[in-house]
Amino acid sequence: MKLLTKKTDYAIRILAVLTKNKNRFLSAREISSLQNIPYQFIRQILRILLQHNFVVSKEGGKGGFKLNVDPKNISVSDVIQYFQGNIMLSKCMFRKQLCHNRSTCILKKEINRIEELVEKEFARISIAKLTKT
Amino acid sequence: MKLLTKKTDYAIRILAVLTKNKNRFLSAREISSLQNIPYQFIRQILRILLQHNFVVSKEGGKGGFKLNVDPKNISVSDVIQYFQGNIMLSKCMFRKQLCHNRSTCILKKEINRIEELVEKEFARISIAKLTKT
DNA sequence: CTAACTGCTACTAAAATAGTATCAGTTAGG
DNA sequence: CCTAACTGATACTATTTTAGTAGCAGTTAG
């Protein structure tokens, strides 16, 4: 049961670090060494965070990344969305062949219910909450 | 977010079929065609179910597998245990390097909490419940 | 005796995750 | 106006996990 991949985990940690340094640009290199995340990997993650406007960037010397949203308004499930795809993806792939099989359908229903539960729980955890001392 | 692997999913479906045929031995071949599960794959899964005494087997012609427990007493999380390993495995792998980083620890704590929640939910779903018409 | 079974071991294939390399373009600061 | 320190973007490779296969030895009903 791996709820979060490393990418997601790193992304959250990056956002947490940026939250603690709201007012300046942190370079990929800097965050990488602060959090022990491989440099090239962090660059990839930062680009995704950038694309989804979680952060803004500044190019050139002394450039880097800065938070672009209120950490109260980013939840772990928002991050999951972009790094692991939609949290709710099991749409009864067995429908055609197997819905005559009642137990399969019930299982899918239960899984969906639990996935929703997980999603809600992650939605309640904001980056702000994680960085609160 | 994939809560169940195919192996687990199949295992549950196998147990459900066996529940519906409590009083006779079903061969791997039979279950395979009933549930559209690849034959060799199902054999693997059945062997694991056997090793953990979920089922008993009979060798030779007309042999096969039969449920060995009360389906009320098998939960989805029991099955997960054997096919996906312990549901609760994230033991703060970052402890050494990162627990000075408060946010990481809080995240781990939250993940653990959610994993526990998932485990409890799956524990409440028995095979009997899944096969109830 | 043999076809239909299971027991067991050891594979291969495919997909997802994790991590790397590299080049082009930007900019602060000497 | 050069250059070192940056980001933008693309395209890889490596590792791990999941999914599925092959095949032989031994058992048993008929």
Would you mind describing this structure in some detail?
The structure is a homodimer of 133-residue chains. Chain A has 133 residues and is mainly α. Chain A has a domain of 87 residues: Arc Repressor Mutant, subunit A (Orthogonal Bundle), CATH 1.10.10. Chain A is built from 7 helices and 2 strands; from the N terminus they run H-H-H-E-E-H-H-H-H. The first copy, chain A, has a two-stranded antiparallel ribbon. In chain A, strand 1 and strand 2 form a beta hairpin. The longest helix of chain A has 22 residues. The two termini of chain A are 29 Å apart. The interface between A and B is large, with 41 and 41 residues. The structure holds a DNA duplex (30 and 30 nucleotides).
**Approximately what portion of the residues of chain A adopt beta-strand conformation?**
5-15%
User: Helix segment count of chain A?
Assistant: 7
What is the CATH architecture assignment of the domain at 6-87 and 127-131 in chain A?
Answer: Orthogonal Bundle
The top-level CATH class of the domain at 6-87 and 127-131 in chain A is Mainly Alpha
**What is the helix fraction of residues of chain A, given as a range?**
55-70%
Backbone structural class of chain A: mainly alpha
- Number of DSSP strands of chain A? 2
